Amino acid sequence: VEKSIISVNIDTCEQRVIFDDCGDDWIFGAPCVSPDEEYVAVTLSSSHPEMRSEGITLTPKKHYRDYSHTLRIIRVPLAGGKGTSEVLYEHPDPAQSAHCAFCPSNGNILYFDLDLAPRYWGGSDGKTVRIWLLDMAAGRISPLKKEYPGVFQIHQAWLWDGSAMCYHGHARDGGEYFGVARLDGDVLWEKVFPEASFYGHDTPDARRNALIIDGIFSKDRLQWLFWRDSDGGSGSLEPICIHGTEWGCLPGQYSHPHPL
Known about the structure:
Blueprint: E1 5-8, E2 15-19, E3 26-28, E4 32-33, E5 39-46, H1 60-65, E6 71-77, E7 86-90, E8 95-96, E9 100-103, E10 106-113, E11 115-116, E12 131-135, E13 140-143, E14 155-158, E15 164-170, E16 176-182, E17 187-193, E18 202-204, E19 210-213, E20 221-226, E21 237-242
Antiparallel strand pairs: 1-2, 3-5, 4-5, 5-6, 6-7, 8-11, 9-10, 10-12, 12-13, 14-15, 15-16, 16-17, 18-19, 19-20, 20-21
C-alpha cells in the first residue's frame, strides 16, 4: 500500500488507485491536488539501498546523511491509470523533499521543500534556503526569496488565496522567525520572536490575517499569530483552545497536533 497513491471517497469509503506502484527505489512525500482537481503531484526521494529489503537495520541518521539521494517531482491524473505519471522536475544534485503543494490560484506553480545533503530535512546544506517554486510551464525553479532571519525554513504553506506563502524557522541568534512573502519575494511581514522556544507547526487562517500555530510559544495551545491586525499592527497572539497533546507519545511526528 505504501507504494501506491490511493483516493478514498469520504462518503462511501470506496478506494481507488491513482498511482499503482512507485517501486522499491522510491519513497513518497505528501501528495497534493491541483486547484482544478485534475492532477495529483507528489515528491519522490530515492530510498537507501539498505532500506529496500524486509530486514531493515539502517538507522535514520545513516539513512539521511550517508547516501546521495535523488529528488523527483511527478504528476499523475486524479482519474488514475497505469503509465500516466509525468516527471515535472528532477534535481541535478543529491536532494530530498517530503512536501509539495500547488498554488491555490495557479495550478502551474508548485511549491516544494528542497532538502540538500548532508543533513537533508534535518538542516539541508546549512546555506541554501528551503522554500522553492516550480514553474511547470517554464520548466524552471526559483527560491521564494533569498534571505531569511535563519537559513532553514521548518514549515511553510500557501495563503488560502494563493497570493503569498507563510513560513517559520529558527532565527540565527535564537528564538523563532515567522513571515509572509509574495511569489516575487516581496515580504509582507516578517518578525523574530526571541521568546519562542518550543517546536511546532503553522498554517494560515482562511478568515483572518493570522497563522494558526500548535506549539512554538506554548506546548499545549492552539493560538492565532496575527501578521496583520485590524489596527494595522502585527505579531499579537490570541488563544484558540488547549489541545493538550503529548508530543512524544509516538515516534516521529505522528503524535504532533498539526493544524490544517
